[in-house]
Design a protein that fits this description.
The protein is α+β, with helices and mostly antiparallel strands. The chain has two domains: 29 residues; 64 residues, no CATH class. Helices cover 22% and strands 13% of the residues. A hairpin with a 4-residue loop joins strand 2 and strand 3.
């Protein structure tokens, strides 16, 4: 379990580092006084993770009140088939962290849930 926690923390740290570097790289290439055009498809620069003292209940649901403390990330865009367009299905992501772990709460909505095929392997 300790290795998995370390792996998630390492992956999250890498993700945040890439976001910061990407943001810095974009601003480094613009000329002084030059306005960088903003388009509707521009993604936000960073996600906000909320620090908590103890982890949320891990039961496969997002019913734990701790999840309500997290900022909801929901303005996702497609890559395929129509790059930059709003996602066809709504998804909400929340991020919490403790001193030892990072928790991602992901709620994937589906307009036709009866057509979902799930199987155990």
């Amino acid at each position: 379990m300790k290795n998995r926690t370390y792996l998630w923390a390492h992956a999250f740290g890498t993700f945040l580092s890439l976001m910061v570097c990407s943001s810095a790289r974009t601003s480094a290439f613009s000329q002084p006084g030059e306005q960088t055009p903003q388009t509707e498809t521009a993604a936000p620069n960073a996600a906000v993770a909320v620090r908590i003292d103890q982890g949320p209940k891990m039961d496969g649901t997002l019913d734990d009140p701790l999840w309500q403390l997290a900022k909801t990330i929901s303005d996702f865009r497609q890559q395929e088939p129509y790059e930059g367009q709003p996602a066809t299905e709504r998804t909400e992501v929340r991020i919490l962290y403790t001193r030892r772990a990072v928790y991602f709460g992901i709620h994937c909505f589906d307009t036709e849930p009866l057509r979902i095929i799930a199987s155990e392997q």
